[in-house]
Amino acid sequence: MGTLRQQIIDLLKQNPMTALDLSQAIGASEKDIYEHLRHIEKSIAGQGGTLRFAPCVCAACGFTFKHRQRLTRPGRCPRCRQSRISYPVFRIE
Ligand SMILES: [Zn+2]
Q: Which of 3, 21, 23, 28 lies 20 to 30 angstroms, CA to CA, from 72?
């Protein structure tokens, strides 16, 4: 577990990536990636690092999920009710 999380940290320090990119890069399920990210968010805070993510955007109407704190992708757009939402892009600073 420790090394997998370290791999995710190393990847996100080099390039911004979505959970989908990360799951393909390290061979874990998308669901597991979100779980790891939640732990990483806490663990890197102690080392002066921050997990940041670009807000998700609705591909249908352009609505931006600016105030969303959760790491996962929203299922549905509150404005147009469609489910064409972009993946959040994570990075570590
Ligand atoms: Zn929308």
A: 3
Q: How far is the CA of 90 from the centre of ligand 1 (A)?
A: 21
Dist. CA 71 → ligand 1 center (Å): 19
How many angstroms separate the CA atoms of 31 and 29, rounded?
A: 5
Give the whole-angstrom CA distance, residue 45 versus residue 56. 23
Looking at residue 42, what is its pLDDT? 92
Residue extents of the structural domains in the chain: 2-92
> Which of the four CATH numbers 2.40.50, 1.10.10, 1.25.40, 1.10.8 does domain 2-92 have?
1.10.10
Give the span between the Cα atoms of 76 and 49, in whole angstroms: 31
Confidence (pTM):
0.85
